[in-house]
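Subject: for your reference before the review

Hello V.,

The reviewers asked for a structural picture of the protein, and I figured it would be easier to keep everything in one thread rather than splitting it across files. Below is the amino acid sequence we used in the manuscript, unchanged from the supplementary table.
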Amino acid sequence: MEFGRISNLALRGLQFLWTLLIIALVGNMIHDANGGNPSIINYCMFAAVFAMLSLIYLIAGSISEGLSGHPLGMVIVDAINTLLFFCGAIALSAQLRVHSCGRSSYVDTNSITRGSNNNTKRCHEAQAVCAFMWFTFAAFAASLVFSGLATRGSTGVRRGGLRKGGPIMSQV
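And here is what came back from the structure prediction:
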């Protein structure tokens, strides 16, 4: 295996781990909620479940190029995941306005952290989800670069220019 494929598989493993952690933390936040959840919590769960489902395709395509279908398929799915996690991480960061979870004035008034029997626990979970959203965004952005580099020359799109890839004069 070449370095690029090993690196891409390592990134896929990190994406899987962090996405699994996001699903677990957000699922626990949803379960412990007393009166519903803010929409950003539901969005984070959507982004994580979408990423987990798309990782089935992305991991298979990283192992064998024959399983990826069209060469741009992995690039498109990586781009969608990168965008979903970027938007979710920004929105969650903005709504959390991260402060100390030990301050009851912050925990009891923030729309994300209140709404549970244990608001401090919910605050810690929300901050962890925010961190893992940023980590997963970075991993998907890096794998987007790897996927983009892997598709160079295999998409069937030819670059313009004087030479079209035919034999050079010394080969004739």
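For the response letter, the relevant points are probably these. DSSP finds five helices and no strands in the chain. Residues 119-150 form the longest helix (32 residues).

Happy to draft the paragraph if you're swamped.

O.
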